[in-house]
Amino acid sequence: MRIKKNSLLIKIIFYNDIAIMITSVTIALFLIFISFESLENKVIDSGRDKIILLNRGYNAAIINAKDDLFQVSRNINVLAGKNLNNTITYNTIAKLIRNQLTKKNLKMYSETLITIVSANGTTLGESGNGKDYFRIDERSRHILERNLSRSESEMSNYYFSKVGKDIYARILLPYTSEGNNSKKKFIVMTMPINDNVLNELRNFVGLTEEDKIFLVVDNTYQLGDMELKKGERFFKKKLNWEYDYFYGKKTVNNKTYYLSMYNIHNYNKQYIGNIGIALSGDSILKTKVKVSFSILLIVVGLIVTSTTICARIFYELLSPLSKLIDAAEGISKGNYDFTLKNEDVEEIRTLSKSFEQMAESIRNNEKMMKEKNIKLQENLNRIDAIEKILMGLQIEDDITLTVRSLQSAFTSEMGLGYSRAMYFRYSREIDTLVGECSHVNSVVKNDMMKTEKEESEGFEFQISTLTKLVTLIKIPFKDDNLLGKALKEKRIIYHNDKGYRYNLGNDLFKSLGINNFLIFPVYSETRNYGCILVDYFGKNNVISQEEAELMTLLCINTSIRIGNKMLEEEKIDYERTATIGKLADRFFGRREDSLKKIISIVERMAECDYNNSCLKDGMKSIRDEVVKIKHENSILKEYSKSYENNMEIIEFEKFLYDVIEKMQPDLEVNNITLSMFINYNGKIMGDKKQLERVFNELIKNAKQAVMNKNVSSKKINLIVTKDKNIDKIRINIIDNGIGMTEEQLSNVFDPFISFNENTPGLGLAIVHRIIKDHHGVIKFSSKVDEGTDVKITLNVYKEEI
């Protein structure tokens, strides 16, 4: 097997060696850490045992001192040979007791103070070489008195106390002298903790030369053999001494010591100092070095052995890979036909099969990539087509013309290439999508006709009569069908499936053979116009996600353009209205007072000569013309000013009766019959004042229409109905007047266009604006000499639940 510098075998062996070394070093460090922890724990345990032993040893020394004191005091009367009531005799007794104690143990009792006291702590005699402040003064007498009484009640016969930076133990022993005075007395032995005591304890515990013993008072070093100055601060931080023992670590002159300390408490159980031992860490450090070196040697040996064995094993296992490498090189050159020797190793056999499967997969992937390239090219063509559609799209005043241009682009092979495009216009009057027009791809139509001539005529009606079928379709504007849902939610909906499997809102769709369809809503921000349904009838094309996203972009762009068109129209209308308003204010505002003066003068002139009828008629004519000018001026101002609607809930039936009641007298005077049929007693949301203006204007126009027609029966019918399926009401105002021509109908809402010379031509323009503000619809249908039908659609008020 040829081994190259960057071969897999070298890398496997290299990374395996790294893994072995990392693992071994980690284990070594872990073992060293565990060993160090174990060594330190052993030192701590040893210190714990020694400090407990030291505590017991010191307590034993106190007890031994008490026993020695007791034995000496028993024979002291014989040794004294004097009257014990004499003060000199008590001092002599104390001296004798101290001498006897020093004979027993000079080091232990050399600095002791022997004091004979009364029951109240008064000093009767004393002897000793101790410091003066060990003697019993007034303060220590009270302390002694309390401890004397406590020793009798609690059997406590010694206590610790502190004077300055010295700690001493006081041993109390009852003493009764022979003689006349039989009052109870006590022998008090004051034994300070000094170097002699510490040496005795050191020998008792069995410390080595490297280990230290010391006394700490108020966190300052006082006695011992540590390399510290007397009075030097021992701990940097203040510690909690509420427990009997303390363990820690301290470095002195670059030497580490493991501390074990016994806390000393006074007669009030208050901390006053520590006796401690410091075990040297030098021996532990040497042991740590030995352990670390031993573990590292073992680990190095394991690493060398493991890497050598693993390298040999990997070489044997991976040697068959050279054949697989040759096969891989053949595949890279396009040679997918190869055979590999059937190796005994299962993995090699698996790799051989994998190479064969890989070759097959590569062939399939090549095929799939070609298909994707074709699809990508289609998407690029579609993007180009949509770009052309957007560039050529014109938003017409009649939105149906815009929809027809979209249908043509959708079904063109040079465009988006759909088979059919059907448009369903949204009717606000009946709240329904109504089929209006359709367009068929010419290529699909020709192919289908050829196929039908050769085979059958089964699809003829789905192509040739598509428009007739579409105009028969009506779809409720609801969420339960896809077309209504797409328009309500203003989004593209598509399915790559047969149309009959979905609810499209009308059963006639099942006969149209809808296949792989997409619904394209046409809308603006404030109005819904309808939906275009396109499909791939007679084609095997599938609508992709990318295609739907492109159509969504086209839909949004179309909506924006429609909105911009409406905004532009509203802007023009607003500017025109504003200009009219300025003209009205400029030219008619200042003439208002002049017109009032003219009317006043005309009226006074008419009153001057009651017999001149010609003058009166002339004055009346002038007055009527001036009043007419004022009326036209007020209408012009009303049309030009902006008005905020005061929307409120209106009981529609009552409101309509109130409006008609005000107009009824004028109609009766002119022999006009007004018939009302109201089949709705609910509510609407609107501005009462504005809606009253609407009905006044429309009924006034109907009155003029029937008055201008020479007919004996003058009728106006007002009909209000509500469809059960939609939340809208329809109001029809029908008259049998002179009617209107097609030209008049086309300009019925345009301002300043009137076919009656006595009106300014703004009434219906104002009516149209009011209905639009109420989100309603108003339409006129009329025939000359037959009459006019005004249709108004308003929304029903629905209370929120």
UniProtKB/TrEMBL annotation:
Residues 633-798 form the Histidine kinase domain. Its main location: membrane. It comes from the Bacteria. Pfam families: HAMP, HATPase_c. It catalyses: ATP + protein L-histidine = ADP + protein N-phospho-L-histidine. Gene3D superfamilies: 3.30.450.40, 6.10.340.10, Histidine kinase-like ATPase, C-terminal domain. It is found in: Membrane. The chain crosses the membrane at residues 12-36. InterPro entries: 2C_sensor_his_kinase, GAF-like_dom_sf, HAMP_dom, HATPase_C_sf, HATPase_dom, His_kinase_dom, Sig_transdc_His_kin-like_C. Keywords: ATP-binding, Kinase, Membrane, Nucleotide-binding, Phosphoprotein, Transferase, Transmembrane, Transmembrane helix. Residues 315-367 form the HAMP domain. Its EC number is 2.7.13.3. This is histidine kinase. The lineage of its organism: Bacteria, Fusobacteriati, Fusobacteriota, Fusobacteriia, Fusobacteriales.
